[in-house]
Design brief:
CATH class: Alpha Beta
Strand order of the largest sheet: 2-1-3-4-5-6
CATH architecture: 3-Layer(aba) Sandwich
Strand content: 15-25%
CATH topology: Rossmann fold
Oligomer: single chain
CATH superfamily: Response regulator
């Protein structure tokens, strides 16, 4: 079994596109589309990493992150936020995230942040095209 990533985004087409990209890079991917699903799936599946949108129904990504970080079962799982909110880095960090990337995200930057969060070898091959966007990694 490979590295399991939980992608949480209320836009199913965005979640599915990210799932395809991550599978291309060798990750196992599971999807959730709202806060309730995200919390339940994280506890059931125990992913290695969570990629979490801030705007999701049922409480939002920040609430989900705080609840997951408050649970003994999921507190160790790194969370990367994908968001359309500029300047949310501090709020993401306070919710327990290790990184916060702006949409549209740069696929290579997302993979780099995932590698960092997972503690993987930095030489993992990248099979995604470049886009011109910036990242705002949070302090470790």
């Amino acid at each position: 079994m490979g590295i399991k990533i939980l992608v949480v985004d209320n836009e199913q087409d965005v979640a599915t596109a990210l799932k395809v990209r991550l599978r291309t890079n060798g990750y196992d991917v599971i999807l959730a589309f709202d806060s309730v699903q995200a919390y339940a799936v994280a506890h059931k599946e125990r992913p290695d990493l969570i990629i979490l949108e801030t705007f999701i129904p049922g409480g939002g990504g920040f609430v989900v992150a705080k609840r997951l970080k408050g649970s003994a079962t999921t507190r160790h799982i790194p969370i990367i936020f994908l968001t359309e909110i500029s300047g949310c880095e501090k709020r993401a960090y306070l919710a327990g995230a290790c990184s916060c990337l702006m949409k549209p995200y740069n696929p290579s930057v997302l993979l780099r942040e995932m590698t960092r969060a997972l503690g993987e070898d930095e030489k993992r091959p990248i099979a995604m095209p470049e886009q011109n966007t910036e990242t705002s990694p949070l302090p470790s």
